[in-house]
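In this supplementary section we document a worked example of the pipeline. Step one takes a protein sequence of length 287 as its only input; no multiple sequence alignment statistics are reported here. Step two produces a three-dimensional model, which step three serialises into structure tokens for compact storage. The input and output of this example are shown verbatim.
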Amino acid sequence: MTAQDDQTAAGDPARASEAAGRHDQPGRVAAFFDLDKTVIAKSSAFVFSKPFFDQGLIDRRTVLESSYAHFLFMLQGADHDQMERMREHLTKMCAGWDVAQVRAIVAETLHELVDPLIYAEAADLIADHKIRGHDVVIVSASGEEIVAPIAAALGATHTAATRMVVENGKYTGEVEFYCYGKGKVTAIEQLSVTEGYDLSRCYAYSDSVTDLPMLSAVGHPTAVNPDRNLRREATSRGWPILTFSNPVSLWARIPAPSTTTVAATVVVGLSALAAGAISYRLLRRRQ
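The serialised model returned by step three reads:
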């Protein structure tokens, strides 16, 4: 017991017994799922490129570049340096965007765009964890407005996603919390404190080597549709490797996006657009 528990024991034997029991009981179990290419078949950012173009938030060149970025993402994933460049480009691109406009676009297109993309295997695995009494947490670098409705449709207990700063109804271009890399570990560690998770008993699933910190933070990591680098790491560490390949329609299960959550966080889900701009320019330079 802690020093505080010792003091409790001296003053109240009943509370002392309760405190001792807390320390003797194993922590609760959660399963942490990455989103893109782990739960859904595409980049959650890329699927919104068309409606953002239709509403004038991005131009035709950005759409073309995002298509090229998505091709690279599906082919080989994204490394740490690329993700950091995407973050920098993204903050410049979205500064000044109107929150209400973004909220409306997400509300109008979420069901149509996300519905066909959820892997049946992921939905089954999530259901299996729930049957076993585990909490399910979707952890993603995409914005909360993208992540939360998908998580709710799948019956997830919690979400951890990127949050952006908004002032006077506009994006400032600053990130309040970037749920990427070590940021994901920060998010799940905070949840482990508030929810009583024992990370040594918890599970994590991801496709990307950039999620190696999250996978390493739990006792039961699994690589899903892994990129080349994560496959190599998973093989060397003896981690299970799963292949998901069967997207299914979950239209009836996806609720409408929350109107109380700040819609600005969806912009971080546009990281694929930033990747396109960067990758496209690098490709042109090499040519």
